[in-house]
Amino acid sequence: MPQLNPHPWFFIMILSWLPLTQIIQPKLLSFTHTNLPSNKALTPTKTTPWTWPWT
C-alpha cells in the first residue's frame, strides 16, 4: 500500500509548511488591531416588563 509510505509526501508537506510558518505567520501577527478592548465596566441595562393591554 503506497499511501502508508510517508517518504514521498512527508518531505513535500514539510517544505510547504516551512515558508508558511517562517514568512507568512510573522507578517500576520505583526498587524495591530484598530479597536483595542477597553477596560470599561459594563453597566447592566434596566429592562422594563412589557405591559400587555388585555391583562
UniProtKB/TrEMBL annotation:
PANTHER family: ATP SYNTHASE PROTEIN 8. It is found in: Mitochondrion membrane. Residues 1-23 form the signal peptide. Its main location: mitochondrion. This is ATP synthase complex subunit 8. Keywords: ATP synthesis, CF(0), Hydrogen ion transport, Ion transport, Membrane, Mitochondrion, Signal, Transmembrane, Transmembrane helix, Transport. InterPro entries: ATP8_metazoa (IPR001421), ATPase_protein_8 (IPR050635). GO terms for biological process: proton motive force-driven ATP synthesis. The keyword rRNA processing does not apply. Pfam families: ATP-synt_8 (PF00895). It is a single-pass membrane protein. Belongs to the ATPase protein 8 family. GO terms for molecular function: proton transmembrane transporter activity. GO terms for cellular component: mitochondrial membrane; proton-transporting ATP synthase complex. The keyword Lyase does not apply.
